[in-house]
Amino acid sequence: MTLEADIRDTLISGGITDPVYIGEFPPTPPALDTAFAVIGYPGLPPTHTLGAAARMTSFMEEARVQVNARSSDTLTAQTRADAAIVVLDGIVQTQINGLMYHTIEALQRPAFRLMRDDNNRVIFTSNFAVRRAATS
Question: Of 40, 84, 125, 132, which has the maximum CB count within 10 A?
Answer without folding.
Answer: 84
